[in-house]
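Thread title: Can someone regenerate the structure for this chain?

I was given the following input by a collaborator and told the matching structure tokens would be attached. They weren't. Posting the sequence so someone can regenerate them.
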Amino acid sequence: MDAASGARPTDRPLRSAMCLLALLTGIAAFAVGTCREAERADPSPSRDAALIDEDFAQNTVLGHIVATGALVARPRPETLRDPPPARRGMLRFEPAGAPAEAWPSTGLARAIAAAHPERDFVSIAVDPRDWDDPDVGIVANAERRGDAWIRGACVTLFHEGRAVAEGAAGVGVHGDSSRRHARKSLRLHLTPRFGATVRPSRLLPGALGDSLVLHNDRRRLCFVNPIGYELLRQLGVDAPRTRPVRLLVNGELLPGIFFVTERLDESHLAARSGSRRVRWFQERDGRRPRDYRRLVLMLRDRAAERVPPLDPHVDVDAALGWIVGVLLLAPYDCQQGVAYQRPDDRRWRWIAWDVDWGLGPWPEAIHGSPLEPRDVVEYLARPDHYDLRGRLFAFAMTRDVALRRQLLARLRDALDHRAPYSWWQATLARYREHTERLLDPDERRFELDSLESIDAFVRARPAALRRELDAAFALGRPHRIEIRVPDGASVSVDGHRHEGGWSGHAFAGEHVQLAADPPFVLRIPGEPDERAATRRVLEMTGPVVVEVVHRSR
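Best answer:
Regenerated them for you:
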């Protein structure tokens, strides 16, 4: 017997085994408790819910349709074995009198799509518990993120009353601060992981990547993002494609217009560049690579003569196009987008993303916080941010004369040729047509008021932008150019052909290229006739009138 413990020596192995068992039991209990606490902190559907059982018929939306016999429920055994343990099942329906295996998103929306063939519809079917259940529903937990908050679903696109694309998808809530709004935007994941049988390009022609956003563009104004993307593409800037639709979820028509929008992510860039070795980051949230930060610091801290040529490092033309687009749209949250380098071209390039705080005067506050009283010109040129495009703008306007001339030429090209007010009129007219086609008369007031506000903004924007540039960089008042063109003649201004006369503006020192087709020549009233020529380069020193006249005059 052990004098210290009173236990026999033969009892020691048994006691050690009992202690080890108690220790393992305690660890297991602790682990179970920790897992349960984690589940409460980040609720996800349990593994035993991987198949959707038939109690979905108790749901008021789907259950009524099943009860009428119009649709027959049949669970579809699809599971995802890798973590997280999220439900990936979905419902398949067999409509009475229709081919078997119809997608539920198709059956639930067929009647309303047929009743409104003039409208495009996107229909989503998802287990109702996955949609709005307080514990596991993605809408009820809209601010939760990550794979645990993507649900198996199916999606159908209706065009002219017919289903033109349908298949499986994953669906989750999309956005940042917009997740707190009553109207959520959604993201569709069309990948093999969710059993996807349809590509994004079937829902949005030309779309790249593996996912799409169903964007409910409604903040201060409506349509700001899609209209902004149209302007950027008009200027030659990479920006997402969009498509206006109405959205149904489990047969319920959600209010407002949604825009099917390309989602910029790694799969999008891989499709665009033809390689999965693209180097990229999201400029608002991503950690900037070292060479990107080095370029920012170089442009911020060095004089023009000490900065090496930028062309090998930056797609300067694309960057200047983005700057011009942002100057015109005037968003106060503009430093967003994806910066990337292709494997065969190490220059930084951009795809624009999220300009939804533009096309209107800056508000006094956002999310309850006051905004500084500045304009987009001052905002872009500020010294405290690490956006390479903003640094390039400040560098061009304050240190590099040649680059400033190139930037102002791009700006003049946008204002006077690519996106004059006539272009805005045609663009806004299309969005009015979208509103009238997709919404009933009693639903249109906010959208139409938004378009009126945008129209007033874009009419005033050119003059306001020129004033902002003058105030920030002392460029002086811009000079007006007027070209008088007779019937049967035309004039080319900086490579853009115009008939019936033209007018525009340029700052002092800018060069404007003019050309007329023989037998017409360009003449400035008051100059000797021998100076008339078919081609001229105007260096702006003041307002000027140019006449296109027949050489025989």
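The first strand starts at residue 73 and ends at 76.
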